[in-house]
Amino acid sequence: MNRSSHSNTSTGWREWVSLPELGVDWIKAKIDTGARTSSLHAFDVEEFTRDGEDWVRFAVHPWQETREDAVVHECPVHDRRAVRSSSGHAEHRIVVLLRMRLVGHDVQGEVTLTNRDEMGFRMLIGRQVLRRGFVVDPAKSFLGGRAPREMRRRNRGRD
């Protein structure tokens, strides 16, 4: 069931998410009700102008602890804002709009680009996406299913 409007869809505290526009079928995300905006691990972030509009080119490593399968994507800059991390550090980030598939539902959301190399998850899903009918069950994980076993092995079994 892939609908964009739904209500009370349960999600666990961590889920495998798809980013179809990037060609990323599997990226492990933490569901973070403490974060307003979702965030994505990005590197080689480069801003440029296309047809008078601000755009950004960035690369993503979908798999934790590996540099395999880097994906490069270009899209318009949606916004720029200061984001305060859980440690209290403020950082200015580029915000893009990305479509994602979470627990079988397609949603578009604001996503900040940042270096998450030192973090446990390549992506966080924040309240701006969750308020579209998702209910978080903190006792559950991967309610939307898991990446195929051979793909998870690349992620060193940390699922």
Automatic annotation (TrEMBL):
Entries under InterPro entries matching the protein: Asp_endopeptidase, Peptidase_aspartic_dom_sf
Domain of life according to the entry: Bacteria
Domain Retropepsin-like aspartic endopeptidase: 11-143
One matching Pfam family: Zn_protease
SUPFAM superfamilies: Acid proteases
PANTHER family documented for this protein: ATP-DEPENDENT ZINC PROTEASE DOMAIN-CONTAINING PROTEIN-RELATED, ZN_PROTEASE DOMAIN-CONTAINING PROTEIN
UniProt protein name: Ribosomal protein S6 modification protein
Taxonomic source organism: Microbacterium arabinogalactanolyticum
